[in-house]
Amino acid sequence: MLGLRFVAKDAAMTLSTPAATSANTPSDALPATPDYDAWPVEVAIHNVSHTPRQVEVRWEDGRVSQYHSIWLRENAADDSTVNPATRERILDLSRLGAWPTVSEARLDDAGALEIVFAPEQRRLRFHPGWLRAHDYTHLAELDAPLPPATLWKGSERDAPTTLDARDWLATDDDPLAPDACLESALEAVIGEGLVRLRNLPTEPGSLDAIARRIGPPRATNFGTLFDVRAKPDPDSNAYTSIALPPHVDLPTREYQPGLQLLHCLENDTVGGEAVMMDGFAVAEALRERHPEHFATLTRVRWCYANTARTTDHVWYAPMIKLDDDGNFDEVRIADFLRGPLMAPFEDVEPAYAALMALQRLLREPEFALRFTYTPGDMVIFDNRRLLHARDAFDVGQGGRRWLQGCYLERDEARSRLRMLRRAHRQQRVDALGQG
């Protein structure tokens, strides 16, 4: 039985003797995994050897994997390690009394790794498909869990990656059901930062159901769904007909929204062309051309402020944020939402010099991708990476331009894509007769 479809009664573990097996499954069945995922056994274990603190697994394709005893003990699937109802870890390693070591290791009749751990003298079994997928001695060879970021310039493409989404809401909501359109959309958003869907319904409010195919929308002071159209007494430049410069939304928040969805309900105006650009590509160009300005914008914390009539959101952060590996994590670029710079005296002039170098790059046509919204179109983009803008449009000739928007978190897209990939793995498990 695989972890994918476990319920508590299936995963109950019994330890009638000190060296009891890890589950009440037959000895010729594959053991549980410490998660709910599906892990096909496409390469079997050939043989096993061990020292007290390491287990070496040789696979039938020649790969050799090594696992530390403490890592194996913490990632077992028995009910002393995980709660069988939730698959969440309950083991406290510090309560074992001593460092967990391996006193026995062998390949059992089902093809699983079977280990007896000291000092507990507890016999535990490990699913070979799960072990292969989590082989940390070969990280570079493992399948990438998510698409890597691919930087792009508008001059390199005629349009965003575009998908026909007319069946978007007709698809089963089962999280384990394959969905080619949704999967392609999420791969584009995670990898490129942007996707355009076409032929969606145009009823006001339908965006909520469209968004929930990925995950729950995030509410802000603009509401859960917000209308982007010119209106009297606006509380944002977006709610006017003026041109908007390249920006991200809500950099004024400690954690700015990860994804933005804009759904076109009406558009028969003159002008108002959408503009998108890859903020990571702009930042990379700044690093190549002006490394000193790039370094400044990764270090100096700017003030971002939305001091409206009824709310007062303020946050301080660099314009360009890198992760621990030096890769791009987010940009916070929105000139109309910058408050007064509050930085050390000696940083003020370098900060403004770096800002102006960035602003000049944003005006270079090669970065901008321009397109027009048609009713039924929707764009999903990474709001912590993509900069969006628009040309001014004319409301004096009777045209109307109405977009509805909402925000999601990056986590929702990542989780949903992982579930779709889990569905593919389950299909392989079923095809191999391992379910």
Write up this protein.
The protein is 22% helix and 25% strand. The protein is of the alpha+beta class and 435 residues long. The chain has two domains: 99 residues, NE0471 N-terminal domain-like, CATH 3.30.2020.30; 267 residues, Clavaminate synthase-like (Double-stranded beta-helix). A six-stranded mixed beta sheet has the order 7-8-19-11-22-9. Strands 10-20-13-18 form a four-stranded antiparallel beta sheet. A three-stranded antiparallel beta sheet has the order 1-2-3. Strand 16 and strand 17 form a beta hairpin. Helix 4 crosses helix 9. The longest helix is centred in the last third of the chain and has 22 residues. It starts with 7 loop residues before the first helix and ends with a helix. 36% of the residues are buried. The N terminus is likely disordered. It comes from Chromohalobacter canadensis. Its cofactor is Fe(2+). GO terms for molecular function: 2-oxoglutarate-dependent dioxygenase activity; metal ion binding.
Quick rundown:
The chain contains 9 helices and 22 strands.
Descriptive labels:
single chain, about 425 residues, alpha+beta, NE0471 N-terminal domain-like, Double-stranded beta-helix, 2 domains, six-stranded mixed beta sheet, 9 helices, about 20% helix, disordered N terminus, GBBH-like_N
